[in-house]
Amino acid sequence: MSGETVRKKLTIGYDETEYVCGKNAIEAENDEGTFIVSETISNIYPEKIKRFSEGKIIFVEDGENSKRIDNYEEVCRILMEREVERNSYLTYIGGGTIGDLSGFIASTYKRGLRLKAIPTTLLSQIDSSIGGKNGINFSGVKNAIGTFRNPERIVADTDFLMKNDQIIREGMAEIIKHGFSMDYTIIETLLNNDMESVKNGDILRDLIVKNADIKASVCNQDPYELLGRRYVLNFGHTVAHGIEAISRNSITHGAAVIYGIMYEMKMSEIYGMMKYDGISIMNKLMKRYGINKIEVSDEMLDGSLSYIMNDKKIRNGKITIPMATKPGMTNMAELKIEVFKELFLKAGRMM
Ligand SMILES: NC(=O)c1ccc[n+]([C@@H]2O[C@H](COP(=O)([O-])OP(=O)(O)OC[C@H]3O[C@@H](n4cnc5c(N)ncnc54)[C@H](O)[C@@H]3O)[C@@H](O)[C@H]2O)c1
């Protein structure tokens, strides 16, 4: 298996996605259709992009600011000018923001293009490219407009992760989330390795495939997010979303998720559900992989709590959050708002 590319099928509802992961996995991709390519990626990895005809590429800026309606319009305009036909291929090459924008274009332009994904961040390889959700931000609301559309093929080329460890740390937050909430062998693998050994071998590839599988199997239970089965993916994210929003995205998603996992573990401990010292294990992982703990002021915590209280996940005065219980397990807790607030405030004093 050493150095080999792994291929497998991911099933989500009626859709089957071919998932390909490995070093230089992009090599087998042909030049069919149109490509939406991150400008950043084309600057850092020109050798990866030059295999595709320049005339077929639409370069876009990336980052959260790219998920704008005028960007959507601009790309659709170019597709019209190039007379791109319905049902032809649209491939994106970039992180989760390019993926969200491209997925939305693929699902709406002429009622549908065939989507292929070449995600270039660890987060997008194991998380955002899987599950079908796409979207753009609108009227100050993140992902306010979007659809569900799964790519036919996802190519996770691990070379894209080699030049910047921060890209790995950001995505590792979601891997750690999966580990503590669904599969503790992931945490064991991370504890038995470090950044260098993860990168220099098949470990990173195997972690990516395992985590893509986990995300797909959760989404497969609830392809259109109607049954609440995807809640488990929210572990650490209730607090993380609050912190991110209050920081106006100056705190990155990955850093907020790491903080959120620890915070929600503390809440679970106070509530009496958590039966092991997950926080010490988190501290070990952070040290090992060079993940810094973010400083969150009392004012930010107050702001985050207000943000959470206005969140769409609150129904009938209750909030449902996954609480850590045993290694690799969470249970859903449906908490009255007053109980949630009390746990949140107590945990904040102990962080
Ligand atoms: N659709 C979903 O299910 C889903 C799930 C989770 C997150 N998301 C979305 O994904 C987005 C975050 O994705 P992301 O973390 O990939 O962010 P991103 O696309 O903004 O990329 C992060 C940064 O890394 C740069 N970059 C991309 N690939 C790189 C590489 N290989 N090497 C160096 N730099 C690289 C980008 O230029 C950007 O500045 C958010 O908009 C979030 O809402 C969607």
UniProtKB/TrEMBL annotation:
GO biological process: amino acid biosynthetic process; aromatic amino acid family biosynthetic process
Keywords: Amino-acid biosynthesis, Aromatic amino acid biosynthesis, Cobalt, Lyase, Metal-binding, NAD
Pfam families: DHQ_synthase (PF01761), DHQS_C (PF24621)
Domain 3-dehydroquinate synthase C-terminal: 171-313
Gene3D superfamilies: 3.40.50.1970, Dehydroquinate synthase-like - alpha domain
GO molecular function, one term: metal ion binding
Cofactor(s) in the UniProt record: NAD(+); Co(2+)
Span of domain 3-dehydroquinate synthase N-terminal: 58-163
TM annotation in the entry: none
The name this protein goes by in its record: 3-dehydroquinate synthase
UniProt organism field: Cuniculiplasma divulgatum
